[in-house]
Amino acid sequence: MKIVCTGYGILAPKTKNVDEYLYNLKNGVCSLEVVDQEGPKGESNILGVVNEGLEEFKANKRINRLPKVTKMGISAAKEAMKSARINIDDKKVGIFFGLSLGSTGERILRDGIQFVNDGDYRKIPITYAHYANYHSITSSIAHSIGVKGITKTISTGCTASLEAVEEAMLYLKSGKIDVAIVGGTDSPISKITTYSFAKTRVIPLNQTLGEGAVPFQEGSKGFAMAEASGAIVLEREEDAINRSADIKGEMVDVVSNNDGVYIYSLDDTGEQMMNALREVTEGRRPDYINSNALGIKLNDQIEKKCSELLFNNEIPYTSIKSMYGNSFGAVGILQVISSLLSVQNGFIPPTIHTSKEGYETMNIPLETRFEDVNEVAITNHGYGGNNACAYVRRHII
């Protein structure tokens, strides 16, 4: 049984929709920015901030009072539904959204904790409990697009939206649902996340866009935190064909696992990532790898190891993270959508800014490669040790 994508939507830094996303990917446009005075000692940091795309919600008081992360998810899901041109009234529908930090960056949540510490009960907002509850985000997205069926929130770190796809595919194949709206949304940027990641030295403080948050580059000090949301519509192939849907591509498989190491340790072997990628590509040859690499040396070295041992450095490896940063629970679905756009439009997006220092043996496109793309493998790694690898390809009846 084939599972196909019939619609997609996105909201990301300097990117209000899929058309803008396609343009930026094809042209290697960086959506990140250097923000001064963001670090714990007044350092600059590299961030991907969503400043546009939510204007339509300002006039709707019910939606406007929701967290930013929820409004971003609603925006992406609405575009995906419109793209799919699907009527879900008579169908069994499931919505599956991946989150990592959810509303952690919201002022209501941060201030609420301070009010509790101060013993100031009167200042706790009535909305606080929903801001603190991850599943309220998914439930609000479901309500806004008219889904009353299965509603699931997956929170496995940066692999969350890929694992949401994995779960949705199981539900579709079992026949429990007919349509899946699958996505991820995260808005992690705040002082608390900046300071905590600064403690572990994985963010690019006091680096330029050419130096920091650059995948496959020895001198990069870390990744760029970013906000984003993305969503796709998945259906069984026969259902999509029967309604004459515009099929964007086939979602072949998702494989996930965990490193299985102590939470305060790191797995520098990359064994489990390699196992997941080996399994998802078994018997297949991708045209390129849409890589997890994000500018952290350990993670990028694991990608290098996979390239060498699994593909003899022959398969192109690229990363969109120097364009869009790491949007935590949303990043996997952004990689899925970018891979589908590659298949549809015949190009491999570049890894911008990198000098390839330390990664010279890898096949890394530094400029956009315009060529036929039929199959793409995706790699993802999450805080907490989860790995997820996905495989998409051109739909052929």
Low-confidence stretches: none
C-alpha Rg (nearest Å): 20 Å
DSSP E strands, number: 13
Overall 3D geometry?
globular
Give the helix proportion (percent range): 25-40%
CATH topology, what is it called? Peroxisomal Thiolase, Chain A, domain 1
- The CATH architecture term is 3-Layer(aba) Sandwich
Largest sheet: 10 strands, mixed
Helix count equals 13
Written account of the structure:
Helix 3 runs parallel beside helix 6 and helix 10 crosses helix 11. With 397 residues, the chain is an alpha/beta fold. The model has no long low-confidence stretch (mean pLDDT 96). Helix content is 34%, strand content 19%. It comes from Virgibacillus siamensis. Keywords: Transferase. Belongs to the thiolase-like superfamily. Beta-ketoacyl-ACP synthases family. This is Beta-ketoacyl-ACP synthase II.
